[in-house]
Amino acid sequence: MALLPALLLLLLLPLAALAAAAVLLGLPSYDIPPGVNQPAKLRLVLTVLLGTAALGRILEKTGLCSQITFGRYVRQGRKLGLDPKLFIQDLQFNKVPVRVYQPKATSDGPRRGILFFHGGGWVFGSLDTYEKVCRYLSRESDSVVVSVQYRLAPEHKYPAAYEDCLSATQHFLQHLQHYAVDPARVTVCGDSAGGNLAAAVSQTLAGRSDLPRLRAQILIYPGLQALDFNLPSYQQNRGVPLLFRERAAFFALLYLNGDALHMQEVLEGSHIPPDMRLKYRKWVSPDNIPEEFKVRGVKPLRPTDFIAEVYETVKRFCEPNLCPLLAEDSVVHQLPESFILTCEYDVLRDDGLLYKKRLEDNGVPVTWYHLEDGFHGIISLYDYCGVSFPSGKRGLDSVVNFLKSL
């Protein structure tokens, strides 16, 4: 990685031309609906990401670095300076790297505590890429925020990310006094893959009596299941940035197995036995999606034939620590108060809607915030390299308002 800056200087101009060509050729296959927030800006962000992917492919083929390594490097962005309102320090909780944000202002008593798990498909993301979001949450909600750098796939497969988040959370809950945090006001929070991890950690800790009980869970457009990639939101938003239907399956497989073999079979639904599909249909079904979310072109699909060999490679998709939507009612009814944010133009929208229903059916209080013009990843883009998305700011402020209510 230390060689990358010099390599970029040498290769930038010719590779940028190749990347631009790839982007221009690829854009027509993507769908940016007119109702989405700031469509021109979204197209610009998409162009940058596609250019990064194209450059990464070229670097990988030349043997300089992998496409994923290059993508991670580019996503790091620039380092932020000191924040006059926050103490920020990098630590380790049970050998897991974390970044702790503490407001400098005096407080009348212990503050809220927030464990934040970043998104990025379990493959991308870091403490630095979510620095702005975590600073904002800490400043605006007057909370101590702990951002967790869990191990990433494909180098570290499931359950590595989950185990790191759980371990860091347990450590924090055992040392709240050191950070002047109220044991009765600790929340787990995450976006996308981080929302998945927050839900899994919350379920694991729900029955624990040896640790302070979590006050709430905040799930921002979470991915919560890998059984059905043909729910209405997957059909409607299959080509909408920043998460395409195929990429959702790709990331899930990369996290599970370290590769994306059998992606097409998983997309078609051939990876789940008929008896299991029937068992989980009460929780993962278009029938549980409100009708108002089915108006943008949804069609019933014919069942595909089950392929046992594929199931053998992905059967852990049925584990709640990987797919929290599949947890038993006995676990779900113990969960803390919940906040779920969904976006209309997001393949993961229905995962959030289905989990909202499960929580409510089990008597768990749920605050739901739906961005009707939102797309996947918009929260982290509320202020991205000078390009702002007002809808992302509204979503982030809805999280802050929920935190202030606790």
From TrEMBL:
<dbReference type="InterPro" id="IPR050300">
    <property type="entry name" value="GDXG_lipolytic_enzyme"/>
</dbReference>
<protein>
    <recommendedName>
        <fullName>Alpha/beta hydrolase fold-3 domain-containing protein</fullName>
    </recommendedName>
</protein>
<comment type="similarity">
    <text>Belongs to the 'GDXG' lipolytic enzyme family.</text>
</comment>
<dbReference type="Pfam" id="PF07859">
    <property type="entry name" value="Abhydrolase_3"/>
</dbReference>
<dbReference type="InterPro" id="IPR013094">
    <property type="entry name" value="AB_hydrolase_3"/>
</dbReference>
<feature type="active site">
    <location>
        <position position="376"/>
    </location>
</feature>
<feature type="domain" description="Alpha/beta hydrolase fold-3">
    <location>
        <begin position="305"/>
        <end position="379"/>
    </location>
</feature>
<dbReference type="InterPro" id="IPR029058">
    <property type="entry name" value="AB_hydrolase_fold"/>
</dbReference>
<feature type="domain" description="Alpha/beta hydrolase fold-3">
    <location>
        <begin position="114"/>
        <end position="261"/>
    </location>
</feature>
<feature type="active site">
    <location>
        <position position="192"/>
    </location>
</feature>
<dbReference type="InterPro" id="IPR017157">
    <property type="entry name" value="Arylacetamide_deacetylase"/>
</dbReference>
<dbReference type="GO" id="GO:0016020">
    <property type="term" value="C:membrane"/>
</dbReference>
<feature type="active site">
    <location>
        <position position="346"/>
    </location>
</feature>
<keyword id="KW-0378">Hydrolase</keyword>
<keyword id="KW-0732">Signal</keyword>
<feature type="signal peptide">
    <location>
        <begin position="1"/>
        <end position="21"/>
    </location>
</feature>
<dbReference type="GO" id="GO:0052689">
    <property type="term" value="F:carboxylic ester hydrolase activity"/>
</dbReference>
